[in-house]
Design brief:
The structure holds 2 protein chains of 2 kinds.
Chain A (H helix, E strand, L loop, with lengths): L4 H6 L10 H8 L4 H33 L8 H47 L2 H5 L3 H43 L1 H7 L3 H38 L1 H6 L3 H53 L5 H15 L5 H22 L21 E9 L5 E10 L4 E6 L5 H7 L8 E6 L2 E2 L5 H7 E4 L10 H6 L8 H10 L3 H6 L17 H15 L3 E5 L7 H15 L3 E6 L10 E6 L2 E6 L1 H6 L3 H23 L1
Parallel strand pairs in A: 3-8, 3-9, 6-7, 7-8
Antiparallel strand pairs in A: 1-2, 1-4, 4-5, 9-10
Helix pairs in contact in A: 3-4, 3-6, 3-11, 4-6, 6-7, 6-11, 6-12, 8-10, 8-12, 10-11, 16-18, 18-19
Chain B lengths: L16 H11 L3 H33 L4 H50 L2 H6 L2 H43 L1 H48 L1 H7 L2 H50 L8 H13 L1 H29 L20 E9 L5 E10 L4 E5 L6 H8 L7 E6 L2 E2 L5 H5 L2 E4 L10 H6 L7 H10 L3 H6 L17 H14 L4 E5 L7 H15 L3 E5 L3 H6 L2 E6 L2 E6 L1 H7 L2 H18 L3 H5 L6
Parallel strand pairs in B: 3-8, 3-9, 6-7, 7-8
Antiparallel strand pairs in B: 1-2, 1-4, 4-5, 9-10
Classes of the chains: A alpha/beta, B alpha/beta.
Chain lengths: 605, 609
């Protein structure tokens, strides 16, 4: 209708934030608002066409059946009936179409926005937010909003318009009769809202039990070996029966509420209608209204009263929809981390010289994570970080791609302050190999080329895989490089994941490298392969190694020993061995272990 | 994984007499309920049509005749009918609703009970999500078919028949017009419904992809940011999202077109009635009330038609669901008691593996002609690389699987001659990834012996070395472990499953040691627990830790489905073969771990304490 597609898809949903939730939902429809108004108007016209059918019937009976005063041929009247129905159908269709366009369009935009928003929210946000909760909001709550637009809001509009149009028609027929016919309306609406509140609560408790049942079932299925090992099948059956029975009971309660509501509301509506019939019939007999009027009345009154029963359901569901608005917009209110802000854009490739100058970092005001970190590393050299969990190694390397921004001090990359580079630029030039990187449920090949940002020919992929010592493993999978990873494909071990990440990083070809060297449980051969793969990766790149052992870092150009966010020792392997300290202790332990092994072996044999 | 993922495939849901018969079988125990709600709904349906007839009477005999007494009589009759109908409505909603819940309950229980009998091989080839979907979604759909589906179609058929009956009684020529339109209406409605359902199915499929996509985007956010793949991701997602809009819009569009279409068709019939009656004025063929009645019948007949169309369109899916349910129930357990299987009272004694061969479904041999005797009370350590067959040996011994060739003797009985219960209730197993059930720690330990007293539970926990950490918890033994034990560390879960095994006082103890390292304190506690349970029992341990390995009376190096080396620690070291390599490597690894100067800080992390 009133489309300006660019403005629609570019609309920043932060503009739809409002403390008034209805206003927020209105703004969220930006670009579709006219569509929605149109949909509502069409509901009104459709209601009017329906009313017209009954008015036509009234005219027909009064002027053709009971008298012969009709001015038009009968076939024209018959045609008018068809036309009224056609109009009614046509308007209903237009309304439904526009409402669907609004709902689906608005929600598609919301879905895309949320998806993009989530991947642009800073690490800090993801670190403290539960994944399941986020997914819940992005799916269930978003769908609740879709229903709000597509069914509920428009449904309420439909019922209200039906009521208004038909009531207006009744008023025209006869004011007294009209007023008399709506006496019970408040009772119907209140009863309906009351009942559906109950239904909503009962339904929620039913759903909760459904979740319990699923958990019980799922734990039984995934723990099948334990169940069998202890021969606990009877116990499990009894346990499941309890949750199953509880679900039955809650379902029964829900059904009882329903089975009371429908007959009660039927009776109220029925007697309201019946008393209308009585008054109308008496008035007709007394000649106050025509027989045709009575027929029109009998038809119209049904459409005033019965739809109101559904109002309660819609109102209760709408209030649930408003809660979903809050939950979704809680995410949208979070501030994104900008990818492209940065005043410096290097003309040539970066070399990779990095200087930390009295760098401090804290996540929150209270706890400082890095204290006064200073060091310099020349381009292409290797710096190793050694320290316990929580000593600040990971935090330090997280500053480089600007996952977090340091709080004070300076970090210089090729002589320029790090935060003058855009995040996008930095991340493009920094490669990270985690100990057990996350793999996506797509093919092995797609995982290797993931994020490389260009089309990579198969030979190149294979070459990278060979260098990462994973090629042969991949060939052993059922479909080679096209094998899917995850639930519907192969399970990939920690060491294999790491090598896949190495292959990916080789393709990405970054100038700065961050490696997590903690070897997961792999056998000697694989470990050697991983080490070789890492060596080939480190060539000519400024490399940060997060290490847990000494062997892998003896050749590093600079070793930093960290504790509680501070550098407590620095130097090369040789120089560190000469000073007393943690590093030397660790090294001595290695020697001690070898001696002990000798001893152990000789004593055993 | 969203449950919709495992739907739709494989079963066609064709009209199949056998499936109907079995569904009927499910309903047989509830025949009184079915009869009850059918009577109620037939009553409701007849009354629905009758109300329209009464409205006609009001006009013809009350208003046009000017007879207030008749009017009063008709209205009283009308009111009485409203009350009778309300009672009938109450009856059918209650009966059909509660019956639906009953049937759901029955089917879920039937599936669950059968699942308990199925063998491990079934579980290894069937994803948990698939099974879950059978128990939750399919039962839902079948129950809907036999309750609301049956109800709606009964209501629809009776309503149409009664309405047609009244129409023929009023004026058969006009009734013929309606009758002519009826099949067209039914056909159009059915075709619409089918297409709408189809769109909804597409919507659900895309929806599960979207959920999966969100999941990856959130779980993999670290990788995504590091690789700067945000823009590509968004573009990929937009494709899904726009599919979702398209299908959703199309479903809504079809739904919006559906009602108007049938309305317009029925409007032609209405036009015909008006035209006919207008042309026959004065012939006394048709009263005013009759015209009104026809208009009402024509408008209200759309509802039963819609309902019928819906039920029939959904029937295919429901039948497919039923087929899947029955196929699960029909799956025979592969491992079950032989006829005349005995319970020897004890399974203490030597264990013999004789020419044992085994392969899983891919038919790749996993165990090749293995011979082994384990003497009563011996502790055997199985070592060797992953995939060598250690776990399979344990699976066979627990009789989770049975040998394909050769046999296993326990105390001179071929163990397939014994009842499963007699074996499995006397074996204590601790798995590599300990599985806990939601509930308290006490519940989880008591799984080993359900009627254990609190004192016995505590004693088992003390023996297993679990008591210390449990008593440090705020609620002690009554602390909730969370779904799958998420609130506990791996080490703690191991201790609890050890305590569970101790409590069950098994005759054979089997343990698959965890590979992941735990802190020193927990490690020591686990070792203590293992000591306690292995004392005087035949024990088979898939061992990773040196302390465990060295404690064994015999060590078996399992490679490629065979015993590569066998002997005591000292004997095997002398060989300087596979065991030697394995041992030296593990020795360095463990010592480095133990001496790690950084380790203390890591061990001080809250959960590991």
């Amino acid at each position: 209708m009133f489309h300006n597609s660019k403005g629609i898809s570019d609309f920043d949903l932060r503009n739809a934030i409002s403390s008034n939730r209805l206003l927020g939902l209105w703004r969220l429809m930006r670009g579709y608002q006219w569509d929605y108004i149109f949909a509502t108007l069409m509901q009104g016209l459709s209601a009017y066409s329906k009313t017209a059918t009954y008015l036509l019937l009234s005219y027909f009976v009064d002027h053709y059946i009971l008298a012969s005063t009709g001015k038009y041929p009968v076939w024209l009247i018959a045609l008018a009936f068809v036309a009224a129905a056609a109009f009614q159908g046509f308007f209903t269709f237009l309304s439904g179409r526009s409402a669907a366009r609004t709902a689906e369009g608005t929600i598609e935009r919301l879905r895309n926005y949320l998806y993009d928003h989530l991947q642009h929210l800073p690490f800090a946000y993801h670190a403290e937010t539960d994944t399941g909760e986020l997914i819940q909001r992005c799916t269930s709550d978003v769908d609740a909003l879709r229903r709000f637009y597509n069914d509920q809001a428009i449904g309420v509009g439909r019922i209200v318009l039906l009521f208004l149009v038909n009531f207006a028609a009744l008023l025209q027929l006869n004011v007294k009769l009209a007023l008399y016919s709506v006496v019970a309306v408040p009772v119907i609406v209140v009863t309906s809202v009351y009942f559906f509140k109950k239904v909503s609560a009962a339904y929620e408790s039913y759903q909760e039990q459904d979740a319990v049942l699923s958990t019980t079932l799922q734990e039984n299925l995934s723990g099948v070996r334990v169940v069998k090992a202890f021969a606990r099948q009877p116990h499990e059956i009894e346990k499941f029966e309890r949750t199953n029975w509880e679900k039955y009971l809650r379902g029964k309660k829900l059904l009882t509420i329903h089975s009371l509501f429908w007959p009660i509301s039927d009776t109220i509506c029925g007697f309201q209608m019946l008393s209308g019939f009585m008054l109308g019939a008496l008035m007709t007999i007394r000649g106050e209204i025509t027989v045709g009027n009575y027929l029109a009345y009998a038809g119209l009154v049904v459409w005033i009263i019965f739809p109101l029963r559904g109002l309660g359901r819609l109102i209760v569901e709408m209030s649930n929809g408003l809660v979903s608005y809050d939950r979704v917009f809680k995410i949208i209110k979070e501030i994104r981390e900008p990818l492209d802000d940065g005043s410096y854009q290097p003309k040539t490739d970066i070399r990779g010289e990095i200087v930390f100058d009295h760098v401090n970092f804290e996540y929150t005001q209270q706890e400082q994570v890095l204290h006064d970190v200073s060091f310099k590393i020349e381009a292409g050299k290797v710096v190793a970080l050694l320290g316990s969990t929580g000593s600040g190694k990971t935090t330090l390397v997280n500053l480089l791609p600007r996952f977090y921004d340091y709080t004070s001090g300076k970090i210089l990359l090729d002589g320029h302050e790090l935060n003058t580079y855009s995040r996008r630029y930095l991340r493009k030039h920094i490669g990270i190999v985690e100990q057990e990187p996350f793999l996506f449920s797509r093919s092995i090949r797609d995982n290797i080329t993931y994020g490389v940002g260009r089309d990579v020919p198969q030979e190149e992929v294979e070459q990278a895989a060979r260098m990462a010592a994973i090629h042969d493993v991949i060939l052993s999978f059922p479909e080679g490089y096209r094998t899917l990873v995850g639930e519907r494909g192969v399970t990939v071990s920690g060491g294999q994941k790491q090598r896949l990440a190495i292959a990916r990083t080789l393709l990405k070809n970054p100038c700065i490298l961050i490696l997590d060297d903690s070897t997961s449980s792999v056998d000697t051969e694989t470990e050697a392969q991983i080490r070789m793969a890492m060596q080939s990766l480190m060539k000519d790149r400024t490399t940060f190694i997060i290490a847990h052992r000494i062997q892998s870092i003896m050749n590093a150009d600079l070793i930093l020993v960290m504790e509680n966010g501070r550098i407590i020792q620095r130097g090369t392997h040789q120089s560190l061995l000469k000073e007393a300290g943690v590093y030397k202790q660790i090294y001595e332990i290695q020697t001690r272990i070898e001696n002990e092994l000798e001893e152990e072996l000789s004593s055993a044999v | 994984m969203p449950s919709d993922f495992y739907e739709e495939e494989e079963f066609q849901g064709q009209l199949n007499g056998n499936v109907f018969k079995r569904i009927g079988g499910l309903m047989r125990p509830h025949w009184r309920w079915v009869t009850g709600f059918l009577i109620a709904v037939i009553l409701v349906s007849i009354l629905d049509a009758y109300f329209t007839y009464l409205s006609k009477q009001i006009v013809d005999e009350g208003i046009l005749a000017g007879d207030t007494a008749a009017l009063r009589r008709i209205l009283i009759q009308y009111g009485t009918m409203i009350i009778i109908q309300a009672v009938a409505v109450f009856a059918f909603v209650y009966l059909v609703g509660v019956l639906g819940e009953k049937v759901r309950y029955d089917m879920r229980q039937m599936l669950f009970n059968h699942l308990q009998k199925l063998s491990l091989s079934y579980y290894s080839r069937t994803p948990v999500g698939w099974i879950m979907s059978r128990v939750t979604n399919d039962t839902e759909r079948v129950a809907d078919l036999v309750t609301w589906g049956l109800l709606d179609s009964t209501w629809g058929v009776i309503n149409i028949i009664t309405a047609m009956g009244f129409m023929f009684a009023i004026n058969w020529q006009l009734a013929l017009i309606v009758l002519a339109v009826l099949p067209i209406l039914l056909y159009v409605a059915y075709e619409f419904r089918k297409r709408i359902l189809d769109q909804f199915r597409k919507v659900r499929k895309v929806n599960s992809k979207i959920t999966a996509s969100y999941n990856e985007n959130i779980s993999g956010v670290r990788v995504i940011k590091a690789l700067g793949r945000e823009d590509e991701n968004l573009n990929e997602f937009k494709v899904l999202s726009s599919d979702m809009r398209r299908f959703g819009y199309r479903a809504a569009w079809l739904s919006a077109l559906f009602l108007p279409s049938v309305q317009i068709i029925s409007a032609f019939a209405l036009g015909g009635i008006i035209w006919y009656s207008g042309a026959h004025v004065g012939t006394a063929l048709l009263t005013v009330g009759s015209i009104q009645a026809f208009v009402s019948y024509m408008t209200s007949i759309l509802w039963p038609i819609q309902d019928l169309a819906r039920v029939f369109a959904e029937m295919q899916r429901s039948l497919a669901s039923a087929e899947r349910i029955f196929s699960l129930v029909d799956t025979p357990p592969e491992i079950k008691d032989k006829p005349g299987a005995i319970d020897p009272g004890t399974i203490q004694g030597d264990i013999h593996f004789e020419h044992l061969s085994f392969w899983y479904e891919d038919e790749m041999p996993v165990i090749k002609d293995l011979n082994l005797t384990i003497r009563r009370g011996e502790t055997i350590a199985l070592v060797g690389s992953t995939g060598g067959g250690k776990t399979t040996i344990v699976n066979l011994l627990c009789r989770f699987y049975e040998p394909k060739r050769g046999r296993i003797l326990i105390g001179n009985h071929d163990y397939t001659d014994l009842s499963l219960q007699s074996i499995q209730s006397r074996i204590g197993v601790v798995l590599q990834t300990p599985h806990l059930f939601s509930g308290t720690i006490r519940d989880n330990i008591a799984y080993g012996r359900l009627n254990a007293t609190p004192e016995e539970i505590e004693r088992a926990a003390r023996l297993a070395g679990a008591h210390r950490f449990i008593s440090n918890l705020e609620k002690g033994y009554d602390e909730e472990v969370g779904e799958g034990g998420v609130l506990l560390s791996v080490g703690q879960k191991q201790l609890i499953s050890l305590a569970r095994a101790v409590l069950s006082d098994p005759e054979i103890f089997i343990m698959d040691e965890a590979t992941s390292s735990v802190d020193t304190l927990t490690e020591a506690a686990i070792q203590k627990g293992m000591d306690a349970i292995m004392r005087g029992r035949t024990s088979i341990i898939i061992a990773h830790r040196l302390s465990t390995i060295k404690r064994a009376s015999r060590i078996l190096v399992i490679e490629d489905g065979q015993i590569a080396e066998m002997g005591t620690h000292a004997e095997l070291l002398k060989l300087k073969g596979k065991y030697y390599n394995l041992y030296t490597r593990q020795f360095r690894f463990e010592r480095e771990d133990a001496y790690d100067v950084f380790k203390d800080a890591a061990a001080a992390q809250p959960l590991e304490g």
